From TrEMBL:
Domain of life: Eukaryota
Main location group: membrane
Any GO BP: myelination
Organism: Echeneis naucrates (Live sharksucker)
Protein name as annotated: Myelin and lymphocyte protein-like
Subcellular location, record wording: Membrane
Keyword Ribosomal protein: no
Signal peptide: none
Keyword Transmembrane: yes
Record Pfam families: MARVEL (PF01284)
Residues that span the membrane, as ranges: 30-47, 53-76, 88-105, 125-147
Membrane topology field: Multi-pass membrane protein
Keywords: Membrane, Transmembrane, Transmembrane helix
One GO CC term on file: membrane
Amino acid sequence: MASNTATMGNLPRGVGICTTIPDILYVPELIFGGLVWILVACTLVVPANPQGWVMFVSVFCFVVTFIWMVVFACGGHYNKSSWAAADFIYHGIAAFFYLSASVALAKVTLDMKDGTNFQNYQLDISAVVFSYVATLLYFVHTILSAIRWKSF
């Protein structure tokens, strides 16, 4: 095996993050999280507070997931047990954040069904769907990271 695809225990590094479970979920998490970010940023909703939380969650998780993926790709994780635990904890927090943001976004979208701009309504429906998909991806990543962490 080439040195850039070698793994440290069960934690991948280099190109290995594109071929191992649960690390292959980084890319879909980034895609769906970015879509939520873009779609929510495109709409104007009167109750801005829930939308602000959704924006915080989507931007925070996008940035941290990207940094986390780069750390794993560059092989910056030396103590494998603590990195596996940190991976589990981060993805658990991200799944919880996305779930709370998805529920808030769905509530705001249902409330704006009557008497609002139809285009904004469609964008918000798309954002709700992608937000729940991102929640599912982070939840699955959490479960698989827990299994990997317990295997050490």
